[in-house]
Design brief:
The chain is an alpha+beta fold. It has helices spanning 15-23, 54-68, 100-116, 141-150, and strands spanning 3-10, 31-33, 40-49, 73-84, 89-98, 129-135, 154-160, 162-169, 176-184.
């Protein structure tokens, strides 16, 4: 049986701040909030993967970091957005306002290396973000629209020093994440 894997930049240092932003949306019915302790920017979703490939993935991710040429950097998270649109909300997210260029360069190099290994290419443009909630039904849609349009929460700055290869195990009370590999941005 395979492992459900993704590559991420984790927001470990901003847990309380992420939870505070989620509180702005607490009264919106229909939202299923992500665990603020698991907040991350998904750099590449790999999906069901043979566990025997983890070492090769780590090697390719090290090569991707080198290819991207990104040293440790600061990323500032602020502002809210939704996918796919304010008219039909599926996901509410927190944006990366500073550091998005570095995150994008990392994503492009990771995408290049992972598709070369046979993983499916992304079918959408990369938007550096951390998912705050998923909308299960539209009961609270108007409140979400209002908060996204009118509020611009400043969440904080994070020193990004690594990417992670993460396993996601889906449970009835939400996904459980385990870091399998840490790949430093050591320039």
């Amino acid at each position: 049986m395979g492992k459900r894997l993704f590559v991420s930049v984790d927001l470990d240092g901003l847990v309380d701040e992420v939870a505070a932003v989620q509180d702005l949306l607490a009264d919106a019915s229909g939202l299923n909030f992500t665990d603020p302790e698991q907040a991350h920017v998904t750099m590449k979703f790999l999906g069901d993967t043979d566990p025997d490939r983890v070492d090769d993935l780590a090697t390719e991710l090290e090569a991707a970091v080198e290819q991207a040429g990104v040293d440790p950097f600061e990323a500032r998270f602020a502002g809210l957005g939704v996918f796919p649109s304010l008219d039909y909300i599926s996901v509410v997210w927190l944006g990366a306002e500073e550091g998005s260029e570095e995150l994008t360069r990392l994503h492009e190099a990771i995408e290049d290396r992972m598709t070369a290994m046979g993983f499916d290419p992304d079918d959408h443009d990369f938007t550096p973000h951390a998912t705050l909630a998923r909308m299960e039904h539209a009961g609270g849609k108007e409140l979400v629209q209002e908060v996204v349009r009118e509020r611009h929460p400043e969440v904080g700055t994070l020193q990004v020093e690594e990417i992670r290869l993460t396993e996601s195990v889906l449970r009835s009370d939400g996904p459980e994440y385990t870091t399998l590999e840490r790949i430093p941005l050591d320039g």
